Amino acid sequence: MVSISKSLFTLLPKIKLNLNPTMSWTCSSCTFLNPPSQKSSCQICLSDSPLSISSDPSISVPKPKWPCKACTFMNPYHSISCEICGNRVSASGLATLETGDDDDDLSSSVGNVFLPLRPCNKGKVINRAPIMVQDDVKDSVRARCANAANKRKNREEPSGVEDDEVDAAMGYKGVKAAATKAIEQSDSVEQEPGKTFSTSKSKVLKILTYNVWFADIEMNKRMKAIGNLISLHKPDVICFQEVTPEIYDIFQHSGWWKMYSCSISNVMELTRGYFCMQLSKLAVKSYSCKPFSNSIMGRELCIAEIEVEKDMTLVVATSHLESPCPGPPKWDQMYSKERVQQAKEAVELLDRKQNVVFCGDMNWDDKLDGQFPPTDGWIDAWGKMKPEEIGWTYDTKSNKMLSANRTLQKRLDRIACKLQDFCITDVKMIGKDAISNLTYIKEKKVKSEVKKLTLPVLPSDHYGLLLEISTQ
């Protein structure tokens, strides 16, 4: 595991950086990972690279922060103790911040198994459950955390809220308390008094997959809306695609984040343009990632091995398979062959396990790519539970935020299951409603005239898929 103490940097605001010819960079149009080069345009779609900010004196760099080695909270530079758990910063950590030394081995864990981040335990904690506190007690967060073992209060559930109708301005404040055991876990992720998993009752788990869209269109408000969906639906496991360092930072400072362990450390996320990320409220034996050998876009398979209870393990895997990138000069870069091979490679690796959920943005096109999942013995969750519904997770007609784009309606996002001890009980689409009182301007060329359209903003260009499974 990459040492968290090496993560001595803070994220900069969303700005376009000067490209170093020795660094690879991600095209914001087609997501192609361009190799180090002196060229200033994408090798696939010829889009321009990000502009330099080296001569812009208006951009100020914020003061550095240091991550707590115990609970991972990003603390201000001037603090010598963690504002959440009270753990003191090491002298070597502050010295490195002052000198600005970089970590030369940031990606040493890529492809290896590493354990999830854990909350700080100041004392013996029994059946530690996630808690939500209201905004008016923000100043007492540290005191609550220090006494969390003895003083746990449950926040009442918000009432009268329908699916996907949470106000974008709504937010939660919480204390980080990822569960250290999964033997006793609430049916709906957030523990309720007197409600735990027991061996006499079936266990219900919720798994969410969501491409959050790395486009810089109302990013903060979109990510907050996704956070509201998480607070509403309470998934046990979350699989995100297209997470950028800025999105990671937004999520990390959200109230719901404190209830989960994360597959990505602060060090790892600083080294990449965008990536997949997994979060779990259940006990995780390990997180791992395996890069696809044929990917020119840096795509990989991310795996979380989750302990549901003693002698019962669930593997949840996610990926963002190779994206089609039609563009000049041939307009035929669909990458179907690469995508199909990646799907087969993933399924063959996961097929060794008894209970597996493989979900994510597969960029799947049934006409080009064929059947999904590509191997017998696996179930397409949406096809099984909603055979009468088309299930387009990318739809330029229903998603009015994309209505200025060329028409595209595809079931790009999929959930494939191979379950021995579980059965699928439900699957649904979330994030289909526009964010209240939020619009953006989109330019569209109509014949020879450029028109400016005012369009609504949704949480993402994709819809999320929420899977529900239970023990048989």
Automatic annotation (TrEMBL):
Keywords: DNA damage, DNA repair, Hydrolase, Magnesium, Metal-binding, Nuclease, Nucleus, Zinc, Zinc-finger
GO process annotations (BP): double-strand break repair
Chief location: nucleus
CDD domains xrefs: TDP2 (cd09080)
Family annotation (Gene3D superfamilies): Endonuclease/exonuclease/phosphatase, Zn-finger domain of Sec23/24
PANTHER family: TRAF AND TNF RECEPTOR-ASSOCIATED PROTEIN (PTHR15822), TYROSYL-DNA PHOSPHODIESTERASE 2 (PTHR15822:SF4)
Name of the featured protein: RanBP2-type domain-containing protein
Organism (species): Solanum chilense (Tomato)
